[in-house]
Design a protein that fits this description.
Radius of gyration: 21 Å
Order of helices and strands: HHHHHHHH
Helix content: 55-70%
Oligomer: single chain
Number of strands: 0
Distance between the termini: 53 Å
Length: about 210
Amino acid sequence: MTWDKDRGPGARRGYHHGNLREALIEAALNLIREKGPAGFTFAEAARAAGVSPAAPYRHFRDRDALLADVARRGFEAFTQALTHAWNEGRPNPHEAFNRLGAAYLAFASDEPAYFSAMFESGLPLSDYPEVRAEGDRAFAVLRTACEAIIGTLPKDRRPPPLMMALHIWSLSHGIAALFARGDRARRPIPMRPEELLEAAVLIYLDGLGGR
């Protein structure tokens, strides 16, 4: 944070242009880590950012708009992580598919505040098309990967790409939400979450004749 240093010690502090939004995003992430996406108010976010309760309205109309921007940024980072892991299916679709699943779990573990904002904030996506759009981009990476895997299956055992993508997304997200979180909601299991997901995907593909 950069404060206006031209004022005396008793004067009101002010942000240089552009820093308030970032300070509010960081404050929201810290509050989500501490209390969850539904556990804080707009005024608390302002206080955590060190500004007056009215200051956030310069950038966000309300708390949900702030959460939506956090979720959008989370989905942007999520898409980048999935795209990097998939790496256009190299060196082969099955190996890249396992990396993709591991990247999903790693994001839940490494970025629990973003993960919560993205999937647990309860925001109506119809009101925040920018969040929906970024979420769709992340899902598109998974669908592309499923299409590549489907191409390796026997022709009479190939499921619709959307259906398979939804199945794999459900598997990945369920394991991430239960066992790979980076917060106190993580549940212990006697194996690595990556191993659990890899085994679940293998069983799924076995059922399609794709082992």
